[in-house]
Design goal:
3 domains; 18 helices; about 0% strand
Length: about 400
Amino acid sequence: MTTSDQIGSSHVEVMNRIVEFVTSFDVDKLLYAISTKRIDEETVRSITLDIRGQDLMLERQKEFLFSFGRTFNKKFTTDDNKCFDTSARLTFKMRSGIKGIKTTVRRFCMRSRRRLPEGQTTVQAIDRSLIATETYMRDLFGLESFPPCVKELFEAMVHFYNNMYECLDESLRVLAEEKDTRQNKRKCLELLEEACDKCKKNQSIFVEALEKNPTLKEVLLDTESLMPNESNPVLKEYRDSKDNEGVFASIYFHNCTLTDVDKITFYKIIREAEGDADLIACMTVFNCDREKALSINYAIKNFDSLLPEKCRRNKIPALLLFVFMRWCSNVVGYATFLNYFNKRYKDAGGLHDTIGKTSLSGPSRLCAKNSKKYVDADKQMNYQLEKLLSQMPIL
């Protein structure tokens, strides 16, 4: 059984207390509680129905909980982390089970409250419930001496408690895994970098801003939302920790939002591009580093040198352009690539007509089939690119 290892949360204390309760529950405690309270058959059936209803809802929530647990610690960011810690989120995902536990233990509580445990200021239902007691008398004749409805109640409780145990075990595992991950600076930094790579794919808004106004100072540096200052504490912490990003990543693992990572991602691009608007746009569109961005922009400005002397209808051959797009490692789709390419190609004085995204459907099919025509075009383009980039000035 996974333990919380003093993860430090009131929710974890509740989880551990419930684990202790459900693992110690047995038929003798149930029979003792029924006998002591003199619970009649009608009440027993009512309790059984309540438990089965809570169990059914818990099984549905259990699926979501396990799905959540499989991926949660593989992501750097969380939703609503400013309002809820992980233990609170997990508790909410098995709320029907916790509600069911509370309901059942209360149904077997005596009216007179026991003396409070040392250091406790309020009486918890689970501490005064007869099915949670450690002091009880076993029934001499066992379950067979009780009406069949009691056996049905016991079986319903066992099934419900087993489901609850599995949910609690998974929750405590997730919490322990989160703690271990936070202590591993290298792992946290890897998760931060993965999150930044994903954010690059969704930052077309910045590219559009640059297209409309390529003056970086006006578009970016004067944008309050992207300034690493007191209004952006996470971004400020990231800037100040540039020599030790691993420490930053371990502190902010599951303690920052996707918006924070968006800002960090773009700040990293701005810093690496040294304020060059064209490089920022290229690095964002193609999810690449500065060196690759320089090569892509240089190739686009000199793209005519990569083409045959004569092109049909004076248009850029779709197959060669598709191969070039693949060489760029484009990850944002045809439309974004073509918007970026066509503008810069024309601005550089390109001699051929540009094409639309529907023209790339045919080359895409050839690529999928790995046809000889595609392979030959790929070899041709890569040879021409290698030749062109060998002439690129060192910047």
